[in-house]
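Cross-check.
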Amino acid sequence: MSNHLQFKKLHFILCISAIILLMCLFVIFSTDVKTHDGPEYQTFMKSFIGINNIKLFWIHSNIYPLIGAILLKLYPSLQLVRLLGVAILALIGYLLWKNSKSQQAVILWFLSPVVLAMNGAIYPAIMGTLFFFLAYIYWKKYEHSKRIQLMLFSGLLLGIAGAIAEVIWPIMLFFVIIFLYKRSCREFLFFLMSLAAGFSIKLIVDYFVFGSAYFSLFRYIGANIIVFLRMHSDNILYSPSIYAILGTFVLISPLFIMLYKLYGEGLKQELYLLVTYLLFILFIFTGSGDRIASHYLLPIAPIAIYHLGRILSKKQFIISVCLCLPLIIVYSLQGIGEMSTPLQQDINMFLNEFGYDAVIADRNLELNLAADIWNNRPHIIWLDEYLASKTEDKAITTYTFEEAPFKKFNNFKIARLSFSYLANVDKEYPDNLPFLANKGAKVPLEGYKQVKCYQTICVYEKAI
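Predicted model, tokenized:
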């Protein structure tokens, strides 16, 4: 008698179909795009269908938003882009079933708090996770059959995963180090060549979109160097709290700890990969408060659940499912119940009451406004862009690295290196532009008076 829970095939299909239907309804009846970069991707997608209401801020790969732009061209609603994420999560569930034949693994996947937290998110990590899991599947097939084309295909898929989502880069590196350790030089070179071929898609798309193959690559690396040197204007580098540490080990699946059994089964590489990556995201951690960001956990979730479905006994599986339910309620179910957020409601009222052609937006509000306005007017001007237009050098931010004078050595030279971000403006903005800020925020511009306040934002005009 099997020690795993087994449903009748029809009942299993109906159960999974019901969960997928609920995931779709969640997307349809909610507005939360789930990730801090969501507005960035939205404005980028909209620019490709002719809605250019802000100068774009962009450091990421553009493969995913280009696919999103195609969907927006077919139907101008973000819900269609979000439903693409549901389809990809469902496809990963199918791959789990096809390759593991474990109903437990499939159910654990669709009830994973991390998976449901990413449901409906506008973020490339979902698509990147699909290709990363496929790379793992084909690598295991290569280990079994030793057919070189399977290894090449695995490397190609891994490179595509990294081309789609930068969040895949760390685990991609760990995958290469751990799974190719002690492999022959021939295997190592062939795998890296196929990986580079897959990753080159990012460079090719960048070249055709921006005119530079390294546009987003250099910007992303540079931005992260600034963050990790703690030179960013916002403190977005966090130290892990006890809640984040606990969350890391239960949000993929509550009995994640049971994967220690992989060591005794000869699957040490899988265990090393999971543990190494989890330690990495704990100690090189960007997130929000005590919550570890779901898109960091998602890439390893399919591999973890693939093996958990086989490892957990029937009793352990039932315990895991029961523990998932409160975690889903607390962690995953956000943004449901409202067809529009308070900000969206405020924007609609603002557009009906004011007919501005252009407005200045306060810091951290610019992209949120532009993402929820589906017209070219009013044009959203970044506050830093506006302020920089008033200066001679048009510099937004300047970073300086300078060595301290030596106390014991009276050297006559001190090294200094500096670089600046410049505003892309060719003329000074007028002084009488209206200003939008978050409600309760201090207005950073002089001579402005409040003319209207909504639930979340306030409108200011220059006093005459």
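The CA atoms of residues 259 and 308 lie 7 Å apart. Confidence is low (pLDDT under 50) at residues 286-290. Passed to J.P. for a second look.
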